[in-house]
Amino acid sequence: MAQKQWTAVDRYITDLLVENDPVLEDALRDSAAAGLPPIHVSPSQGKLLQLLALTKGARSILEIGTLGGYSTIWLARGLPSDGRLVSLEADPKHADVARSNISRAGLSGMVEVITGRALDTLPRLAAESRGPFDLIFIDADKPGYPDYFTWAVKLSRRGTVIIADNVVRKGAVIDAASTDPLIRGIRRMNDLVAKEPRVSATTVQTVGVKGYDGFMIAVVTAGQ
Ligand code: SAH
Ligand code: DHB
Ligand code: MG
Hints:
single chain, alpha/beta, binds magnesium ion
């Protein structure tokens, strides 16, 4: 019952406020055809990411976890024409599908998909002074979230917005005794966020086509 209603309301919101976009639909179609798992953000969540980028006036974005580039395209469309987005993806097949989707969206000039495990590619970005970024979206493997948050802070400046997807997981996040590596990863990140004096954060629970989950949104309040 609840899921049916969340889906219906999400559809109502999407039909009303989220413009129909063939490029985004093509990206989902090709991702599914290539066998990628359907775990991309929903259309209404993609639009939220774009609006956050616009609100922030972001000129540089880092994404951790590209999949087929669906959230990447939403975020990149929130950038000015000289903006830049770097997206990190461990799976070469996912990265290939994403590059093709991003190219069809006309965004190859501003988006770079870097193949490799984020824990290998994040230090490289830092070493090459590719940061700081204005907005960072964490959406790769959940056990990695504590490390990704730590790297995100390193790659930030004052005012950087850090967003992490899937931090509620049907409420499972409150189970302190959980042995699930996903939940443990999210909880360890939350503990880091809570005790990090350089960020101010909250988590918003969400329902919709993807079920019951949530976004953590943090703002870096101190210079690095
Ligand atoms: N942001 C995407 C969804 C990402 S799904 C969207 O909303 O459209 C998570 C992605 O993270 C998958 O493609 C997976 O291959 C990738 N991933 C998993 N472990 C990773 C790692 N260690 N480093 C980088 N990417 C990883
Ligand atoms: C799932 C959803 C996500 O947004 C994600 O990043 C990973 C997994 C899921 O529903 O399993
Ligand atoms: Mg996600």
